[in-house]
Design a protein that fits this description.
Blueprint: H1 18-28, E1 39-43, E2 48-54, E3 63-68, E4 71-76, E5 96-101, E6 106-114, E7 117-124, H2 141-144
Antiparallel strand pairs: 1-2, 2-7, 3-4, 4-5, 6-7
């Protein structure tokens, strides 16, 4: 049973979180039943990742990788060779499409096809303005000195 939530009432209390609700709505959508071809996602370091997709039988011209606004799409469509008559066809050659939602500062560093394995290298590059920085605490010397309270002088009564 698929349950769909309406996030519209929350928009009036959350300013600037529109993207979070879009991500929640996208996650709710039904995923394709087939996760073919299989893939791995590996974290190589603190800020580097690799997606490996098993695409045996696909040539470089049969694959298409696009990256647009935090969405990495890998699609494959094998070109059929005309005139071949299969007695048994066990190697899948059907079209596929995988979509990967990437974080804001993750960029595609490159792709490589070797021995039927498509590897896509990703790197997270956080701009200097968004990195945490240390704030020095300064004191105001004028406020640091204690000022003696002012006294009102009056004549002493005899």
């Amino acid at each position: 049973m698929a349950t769909s939530y309406d996030y519209a009432p929350l928009f009036r209390w959350t300013v600037g979180f529109d993207r979070v609700f879009n991500l929640l709505e996208n996650a709710q959508r039904a995923r394709p039943i087939s996760d073919w071809p299989p893939y791995d996602i590996v974290k190589n370091g603190d800020d580097s990742y690799r997606i490996s997709i098993a695409v045996a039988g696909y040539a470089q011209d049969d694959l298409d990788i696009t990256f647009q606004s935090n969405l990495l799409t890998v699609a494959g469509k094998k070109q059929e060779a005309s005139g071949e008559c299969y007695l048994h066809r066990g190697l899948a050659g059907r079209p596929f499409e995988h979509r990967f939602e990437l974080d804001d500062h993750v960029k595609v560093n490159g792709a490589d096809l070797h021995n039927g394995l498509l590897s896509i290298d990703l790197v997270r590059e956080i701009p200097e303005a968004l990195k945490p920085r240390r704030i020095d605490i300064q004191t105001n010397p004028a406020l640091a000195q204690e000022v003696a309270p002012a006294q009102i002088e009056a004549q002493k009564a005899a």
